[in-house]
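Marked as duplicate of an earlier ticket. Keeping the data here for the record.
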Amino acid sequence: MKILRLAPLALGALLFSQCTLPDMTLLSSRRELVRRALLVMPAVTSQPPLYVWHGSGNPGPLSVNIDLSEQKAYFFKGGRNVGWTYVASGRSGFASPTGSFRITEKIVNKRSNRYGMIVNRSGNVVNRNATAGVSRVPPGGRFVGAHMPYWMRITGYGVGLHAGAIPHPGSPASHGCIRLPRDMAETIYQHASVGTRVTIMH
């Protein structure tokens, strides 16, 4: 009788333990996904991530799709999505071009020959938003082009992808180029080549 009374308890404990056992295959795949993906958070953790990249181990050529309405770029290798990032495209009056382009030039450490700042003879900045040939340069001063690390040119008239500030994720901010977070710009620079396709759409 005692055995019969204990049988339902034992069966119930067995069923309960089976229901609460985690799916180890699922957990393993989740750990692998987290391990492979690079998730970069902005300074304020309540904001969404600036980008996600998990394409380093994926074969195939890179391609880039930029959606200006979202201010995001999506990356593909071998036709598979391998990441995305916030970008900052051209603000009002400096619209970024749309269409299909190819990367035609790569320079790790480039400076703009059009936009930058003016410094005086002592090296102090007197104009932080200067245009070469337009903004006044004081005697002894000079124009210093804006720094554009990991430059990847896509047009013949000076538009490209490069590292730069994303002051308000989701909003345009540049003079027409496509700015990327610095670490993501370095990653894309490493995986892109001259000839990589870049598609920009509204």
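See parent ticket for discussion. The chain has three helices and twelve strands.
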